[in-house]
Write a structure and sequence with these properties.
Elements lengths: L47 H15 L6 H7 L14 H14 L10 H18 L15 H12 L8 H33 L4 H18 L3 H8 L10 H24 L1
């Protein structure tokens, strides 16, 4: 993960963690001791990257609500106060976590086939969100533009550089693709939760009998013939076995639609 591994490295390029925008929680400078902790000593040396990795692992396992400074300190077998040498507070830690998750994704260079490039980008985004489902709850609200998020956007924009689009349209293409991926992942996560709920039911036979009775009520009304075809043809719209296929179908539709818009703007 690149969520802070460059901490303390020398070179002409600035550390990514020095490129946060000038608003939001102000992190401690590298090696600086926050004023309210001066005179105290760390239980053991930590790095910001180590703290962020531990926090992401907790969020992956239990959700972001389980993340707090004391919990992460326990995970690292360190004193809670030692985290404040690197992280200002929980809000700052969440920003670092989401920025770190974004930094996991390698956009790659443009291949000359923009559809293939954007399809690869969409699949990477989907897999990243499925690995870290808690991130979905923060998109649109957090984080503020972290440096790895900006770097990811910079690299993504490079994939549409040769399409002859103005900057706004190129950004719209990426946002449209991202919106599709986010919607698809939210749907998948809902399906997974429904599966867990069904597995927790002690006697599925009661549920199945109720569903059959409900279907017969719908059929008797004569108003739902198209809907009932789903059951008659034994189609499960939420089947885990078809998730990849359904995602790829939607992705293809999205890319074809983008292509038609590009052609329309060129003509």
């Amino acid at each position: 993960m690149s969520s802070g591994d460059s901490e303390g490295t020398a070179g002409t390029e600035p550390d990514l963690d020095d490129l946060w925008p000038p608003f939001g929680p102000v992190p401690p400078r590298h090696g600086a001791v926050p004023r309210h902790h001066r005179g105290r000593r760390q239980a053991r040396p930590l790095t910001r990257a180590e703290i962020v990795r531990a926090a992401i692992a907790v969020a992956d396992a239990e959700g972001a609500g389980a993340v707090n400074m004391r919990r992460i300190a326990r995970e690292l077998d360190a004193g809670a106060m030692s985290l404040y040498w690197h992280v200002a507070d929980k809000d700052h830690l969440l920003d670092l976590m989401i920025d770190g998750v974004e930094g996991e994704q390698e956009v790659g260079d443009a291949t000359g086939d923009w559809k293939d490039d954007l399809a690869r980008l969409a699949r990477q985004q989907r897999q990243g969100l499925l690995r870290h489902p808690w991130v979905v709850d923060f998109l649109g609200g957090r984080p503020r533009l972290g440096p790895r998020i900006i770097l990811h956007l910079e690299q993504s924009l490079a994939l549409v550089d040769n399409l002859g689009l103005d900057t706004r349209t190129g950004l719209d293409v990426l946002m449209t693709l991202n919106t599709y991926v986010l919607g698809a992942v939210i749907r998948e996560l809902q399906e997974m939760r429904s599966e867990q709920d069904l597995q927790a039911i002690p006697d599925r036979r009661v549920v199945d009998a109720g569903i059959l009775q409900w279907q017969e009520s719908l059929r008797a009304s004569g108003r739902f013939t198209r809907f009932l075809r789903i059951f008659d043809e034994d189609i499960d719209p939420d089947s885990p076995e078809t998730r990849e296929e359904r995602f790829e179908f939607g992705l293809g539709c999205m890319l074809d639609g983008i292509a038609s818009q590009i052609e329309r703007r060129r003509s």
